[in-house]
Specification:
The protein is 35% helix and 21% strand. The protein has 336 residues and is α/β, with parallel strands linked by helices. The protein folds into two domains: 9-199, Rossmann fold, CATH 3.40.50.970; 208-334, Rossmann fold (3-Layer(aba) Sandwich). Strand 13 (268-275), helix 11 and strand 14 (301-305) form a beta-alpha-beta unit. Helix 9 (224-235) packs across helix 13 (323-334).
Amino acid sequence: MSDAALAPVRTMTMAKALNAGLRRAMEDDPKVLLEGEDIGKLGGVFRVTEGLQKDFGEARVVDTPLAESGIVGTAIGLALRGYRPVCEIQFDGFVFPAFDQIVTQVARIRWRTMGRVPMPIVIRIPYGGGIGAIEHHSESPEAYFAHTVGLKVVTCSNPVDAYWMIQQAIASDDPVIFFEPKRRYYEKAEVDTRGTGAAEPLPLHSSRIVRPGRDATVIAYGPMVKTCVEAAEAATDEGRELEVVDLRTLSPLDLGPVFESVRRTGHAIVVHEAPVSVGLGAEVAARITEECFYSLEAPVLRVAGMDVPYPPSRIEEDYLPDLDRVLDAVDRSLAY
């Protein structure tokens, strides 16, 4: 019996919540298997898969060569034979050797076969900055995948969502790119693993309001959700109530709660770590403008990374959106 079954409500880090979610998925379905670099004996760089190879064996938790294209290519074959492979890409910047497999094969097989052949692959990608890492270890490549028809793209922002969303992604017959904000891996929350009543999880492809407010809508996902909640808390000192929306799903986007919020507040600010140009924020801003034009009292503003390569770790805090940059955007929006 798993730890989650023994103690249905536990305080977990996001990394431990993902581990518990993977464990439960593997217990529930013998066709679920994991593959990736150093995920077995080591338990992964961030220890997300710690203990799973010991409990489920080397045939279900596979330490692969350092070859991302091979990891995903192997997963395609396994999925075609009825398995549900979960691939770990060790760091965000390492996904590009597998980009061809993901875009030209994984994303297209259900379309090629008119839905007759499922492609139940989950590709886990730790992403974003904030950990002081070297080059290729702090990227935000989500827009590449959200732009690709045939892929589902989601990202968790807290341990509760991490626990449920990884299981929902594994259960999907569509391929899912699962982004994990690495600087939030060790932040804690209470996770109720029973999935009933108040603990019942949201559908995988749905956004949610994490903090209600009346003056402006702040939209974020992944690592920026906590930053925006902190900004909203700071804004109360000036008598402002900011509503914070966690997108959770990047493809397909669930913007119903966003539109409803913006129609009430009249102000919208979109926040993400990735560079500002042609990022997810641009798509969200365009959709808000199309749907809520007559409710807007100011242009939709974006707070994002700069249009430069990710900087050396010593100056990454100058690059990443922070509380002050979010509040500055709120000030500019409300000043119109």
